[in-house]
Amino acid sequence: MTTDPTLDPAAARQPLDAVALARLVDHTLLKPEATRADVEALIAEGIRLGVYSVCISPSFLPVEVPVGIDGAPDLQVATVCGFPSGKHHSDVKAAEAARAVRDGAHEVDMVIDVGAAKEGRFADVEADVRAVRDAAPAPTVLKVIIESAALTDDEIVAVCRAAEAAGADFVKTSTGFHPAGGASVHAVRLMAQTVGGRLGVKASGGIRSAADALAMVEAGATRLGLSGTAAVLAGVTADGDY
């Protein structure tokens, strides 16, 4: 059975070898051209690497993952909601999340309406997150993608507070599809300071090396979204250096 690393956020910031770092990874495949064969290969690779979860598009659900002797999955399954633009009605996001859970997702990564945040409509952001939270209640893990590269520091703080107020489990930097960019150490640190260990922080988007990954963890990330997981883990030494 898996253990969510965000139960002890401080532990994620201890020196990490490749095995420990892998337990923080959502091994991700969200390319539009992905096939079922690609997803099967992703799952097999995720098992081999010892990652925490795989993150796939909702149309691929349900998928088969191995289970332990207690019947619990050894590999968590995450999916996305309102992806990648966030420009979906809240009831559509909620329906998408509810269907994903019925189809076997353990975790849902939803995208906020970034334009609402840019306009200062943080109550609307909170309501959007709450709609998805209500449709996918605990124990489903809800991560809120804020597209931090497109926001000011004040907007990042306000959106993280809205996500927390709405009952999210994580705030997450990026979809990886926004032209403004992906995760940054500065954004991760600010997000971690804002949620203060009450929520997890997922860094995702543009993390392509061991140095990138370890810098995000040092800044406060408790989960990492990686598509090039094998290459990242291969760059980590036994003492958590690179």
From TrEMBL:
Keyword Transferase in annotation: no
This enzyme's EC code(s): 4.1.2.4
Cell location: Cytoplasm
Record pathway: Carbohydrate degradation; 2-deoxy-D-ribose 1-phosphate degradation; D-glyceraldehyde 3-phosphate and acetaldehyde from 2-deoxy-alpha-D-ribose 1-phosphate: step 2/2
Superkingdom as given in the UniProt entry: Bacteria
Alphabetically ordered keywords of this record: Cytoplasm, Lyase, Schiff base
GO MF: deoxyribose-phosphate aldolase activity
Keyword Phosphoprotein: no
CDD domains to which the protein is assigned, alphabetical: DeoC (cd00959)
Active site: residue positions: 109 (proton donor/acceptor), 172 (schiff-base intermediate with acetaldehyde), 202 (proton donor/acceptor)
Xref: NCBIfam families: deoC
Role, per record: Catalyzes a reversible aldol reaction between acetaldehyde and D-glyceraldehyde 3-phosphate to generate 2-deoxy-D-ribose 5-phosphate.
Family statement drawn from the similarity comment of this UniProt entry: Belongs to the DeoC/FbaB aldolase family. DeoC type 1 subfamily.
Protein name: Deoxyribose-phosphate aldolase
Organism field: Cellulomonas iranensis
Gene this protein is translated from: deoC
